[in-house]
Each structure stands twice: as structure tokens, then as C-alpha cells.
Design a protein that fits this description.
The protein contains 19 helices and 29 strands. By secondary structure, it is of the alpha+beta class. β19 and β20 form a beta hairpin.
Amino acid sequence: MNYYQEHQAEFLEGLKAFLRIPSISTLPENKPDIRRAADFALNELRTAGMTSAELIEDSGSGNPLVYAEWLGAPGQPTILFYGHYDVQPPDPLDEWKSPPFEPEVRGDNIYGRGTCDDKGQVYIQIKAVEGLLKTTGKLPVNVKFLLEGEEETGGEHIEAYVKTKPPRLHADAVIVCDTEMFAPELPSICIGLRGLVYYELSVQGADHDLHSGVYGGAAPNPVMAIAEILTALKDRDGHILVPGFYDRVVPPAQLERDAWARLPFDEKEYTEKEMGAKELVGEPGVPLFERVWARPTVEVHGIRGGFTGDGAKTVIPARAVAKRTLQRVELFDPPEAATLDGFAFLEFGADEAAARELGALLEQLGFLRLGRHRSKAVTLYRQGSIQLVVNSEASSPARARFDTQGPSVCAFGLATPDPMQAANRASALLSARHESPRGPDQLQLPAIVAPGGTIVHFVPSAGGASLDADFVAEPGAGNSTPDAGLETIDHIALGLAQDQFDTWTLFGRAVLGLERGESLELADPFGLIRSSGFANPERSVRLVLNVSLSQRTRTARQVSATGRAGGGVQHIALGTRDIFATMKRLRENGVRFVPISANYYDDLLARLDLGEDRVRQMQALDILYDRSAGGEYLHAYAEPFADRFFFEIVQRRAYDAYGAVNAPARMAAQEQNATASS
């Protein structure tokens, strides 16, 4: 029998004791009960084995926060558990089968105010931690708890406290267990809720109540008036009639709708048993889950006015009051996604030695070394519209990234007509802003932090998104290597840990406004790679997200090298108009490319009517080929730099994908080449 089974009866009684405390935060008379509930949670956290636990008092009349921590896992992530110990009023009392603050077990369920909002979840989390600490003496991660007593009344104390950004709240993830499991035995993660605007509407008629037999037909009736106001908000089908109310509602993605359709759901049971209703209401043609999860609504929570006691009283009330909420769908408020005009630059983090090696490779690729930053150890390279920055400045974020990950892309810039609009949208969607140190008259580029710590700068499109203002020519700048015909950054691909894939997907879609393309599984010699492409409508910005489903692939090894960042830029595709001329030039410059098996070209001849001369020309230059109904894609891969990232040379002709059909041949060739080189 494990710890939890041994202590099951004790834990059940402890939960019941917690539930018996009527910690109703909306009623002043229950203020002492709020204190009792806070003290109860505090004592449970201490009993569980947290190394420190305390109440954080409000300077005014707010309810205390409960904070506790156990930080005995150095080097491991930190998880912050949020919950609340206050509850709503239990009214109407006559609808309870058992007293709300006398918890009762019926079948497999326990009934009482706060059992699932949120005392039950809080208690379970505390006991989960206790069981591990009591039996093993440690936790696999660092743990913090922050519990509040005002969740049901607006949370003013916790909001003010969190805004001070106390260091003790630093965490890698926050777990909020205040929603629901969709069904028994179906673990569920809630990724968002509709926001709430709650307000009270008051209608005044006469300055005192009037007898309806004497004044009826002439006196204004506030109850009737408030009823007319409320019914005018919706039509009979539940469609909200407020002008502009739906204008900026973002419909759920097809991916979300498909996921909802797979949920185990019985609408009849939901209607009759869970709700106790005869039928559902709402907008015709809008699916149920979309109505309750993704669409805004207006609801009335109470109407007060006139005589409501038993019997009759013929009075026209002087005043009537209604309480209403607007269930708002988040994403009403952010600025529109800014237009993106392409990649303005990529920035690599390096030390002095790596900067020299990378600089030499860039010059072999045909990039011109334009000069050095006016105040930092940063060098700018350019070819066509491509700008690459190598940053070896000590004590900079770029150098810090190098110290933990080796040479890597630490930042990239996106060209846009309105950098502030792009940054403000990102901030509204809770992306952290980044402020880079800058000297007088240096470029000020709004920037944000993307998942994993990569910095994204928004660069004005005007003037070609040039960075020249911050750089000056230095002795020896420039090179004798001729331009290789590279013109654009076609796309960048990121190798990600599995838990970063959805985060980057949301970041690309919501923050950057990119559209998701096809999602494929690619065959690496050591496992499958899940790959998804994202692009803006103009196709000037393309991102590819790759996740290894095995720990043995090259992608997985590269992701592992990034540590807690969970991945980063894996390869950079540079576009040319003539890949044959470009590849010849690059080979002459000494750039080493991954050799492709002769079998690939024999297969290409068998599959496609390309002509042997052309295929053998591709083979001589290790160029891969794919085509769509209306276009072609030719591409080749340079050998990796420091085993961290590699360059791809690309020529597109009305082709909108990434040559996925060639991925198995490419990845096998990369593995063979790496083995031969080691």
C-alpha cells in the first residue's frame, strides 16, 4: 500500500475540514473565515514539507496570499502552483441536497461549496507534493505555491503583488488547476477562457413606489423598462444585437474544431442530466462547443425590483436593478497583426574564435563584410538583401547564448512597415519585451522574446530594412570573394523539443500572424521528424518547425545541445535565382556540401521526366529536386557549422512547400557525411 492509500481516510477528513470553512470572499461577515482558510492552507503546506511558508498580508483590507516554496532541486525547472481558497456564496440554499459547508460523500463524489472551485484541487496538489517528500525526501523539480483569497471578487491583492515582479515568483511554468476535466479519466489542459465584464444596470422611474391601481398606465415602470433593455440585447436565437460586438471575434482554427469533435460527448446527457434542462439555446448553426468556449455572450444573473415576497402587492416600483456579464472572447483587444515584408537580418551569437570561423564561412558563401558596430564587437555581412550579424560582444545576450549553446542564431529581425504595431500586438499577447543597450544615435528597434529565448526585432521596411546606420567600415572590411548570387532568406527552420512545438505554433500564428501550412512526418535514419511550415500571406516570411519523435536523430541531438531553451534555428535557407551558377561559384569558393547518393538521381530519372542531362547536372552539384503542379524547387545543403546549424541553397519557381519528399535522402546523406568526417 503506497503513501496515498495509507493516508486516504486522513486526507479525506482533511479535505472535509477545509471545505467546512465558509470562506466567502464577497461577504464582509465572512472575513474571519477567510483568515481561517488561509491559515489552514498555510499549515497544510508546512506539514507537506515545504521549506518555507508564509502569509503575505495586504496593506489595505485585502485578503492574505499564501506563499510556500521547496527549492531543493538545483538546476531543475521551477513550477509555480496557483490556486485560491475563497468560495462563492452558496445561495440559493434550498437547492442544495446537503448543507453547502457540510461536505457529503455520495458515490465517488464529494459535494460541498469549494470542492471543485478551488479547494479540492489545491488540497490535492499539496498532498501530491507531501507524498513525494515524505516517501523520497525530494521532488524532481522545484515547487512554489501561491494561493489567493479574492479570486471570486476580482483578485486585487494578487494583481497588485504580481505587478511588483517579486523575484520569489520566478518560475519556468505556472500550473493553474481551477478549470475542469472534460470527462472522467480524460486528463485535460485548459488553454484559455473567455474574459468577463460584470456590471450592474439601474433604472429609476418615480422617486418613490406608486400604487398601480391609481398610477398604472401613466407612471414609468422600471421593471418593465429593464426587461425591454435586456431583451433588446439578443434576438430570439441568442445572437447579440450590440453593433460591432462580433467584429473582431477570432473564429476557432480548424485544428481546434477537429480536436473538439474527438471529445467523448453526449449532448442529451449534457442537456438533461448535467444542466437539468429540456433543450439548449443559442445561435443556430454554431456548434455547441464554439458557443460555450469561443463565442462571446451576454448573460443576466439577477433582477431586483418591486415586491418579491409571498402574496400580492399592487405597486409600481421606483427602481429596478439587473446584474449582467459580458463573456468576452480574448483577442478582442490586440492590435492587428502587422504586415511582414521579410527577414531583415539574422544574428549569430559567438565568441571571438567562433566569430572568425563563421565570418570566414560567410565570406566563402559570397557575403561582403561591411564593417563593425560603432560600439560593440558585432560584424555585419551582406549579400543581396540578406543581412547576417555576428555578435561576439562580451556580457551580451548573444554571448550568453553562445556560452550555453555554442554558435547559434540568437535573434532575427522581421521587416515591417509598422514595427511598433507588431511589438504592441506581441505585448498584448503576453510576449515579453526586450530592450537592447544602445548608444547615442543608434537604431532603436522594438523587440520581443520568442519561446526559448530567441529575440525577435521589428525593423522598419523603409530603406530596405538596412542596419548600416549602426556600422562603420573598418580596415580590411570587404572581401575579394565574388557575390554568389544569393538574394533572400527563403526560410529558417527550427529544431524544437516536443514541449516547445505547440508554443512556437501559437507564437507564429497569434503573435506574428503566420498561416499554418502542411504538417508532415519525415523519415530520419534514426526516427521520425514531425515538420510543419508557417508563412505570411505574401510568403516573404517562412518558418519551419521540426520536432523529433526519437531521441536518436540529428534534430534531437541538436535540440539537446540547446539545454533548457528547448531548441533553436537548425538551418537557414538562402534563395537564389540560378542555383546552378550559385552552386558552381560556392564550390569554387571552397564551401563544402553534403554529397547526395547516386541512387537518388537514378530514382529521380525513373520518377520524373526531367531529361538525363539535367539530372546529371544536378548530381554533379548535389542538388535535390521536387516539383508541384505549377512549380519547381531545387535545393542543396552545406555541411553543418560546428554541428549546430547549416545553410541550404534554394531556388523556388512558383512552389509553396519545402521539398519534404527529399528529406529522407538529405538526412541519410547528412548522417553518412558526419560519420565519414568523424
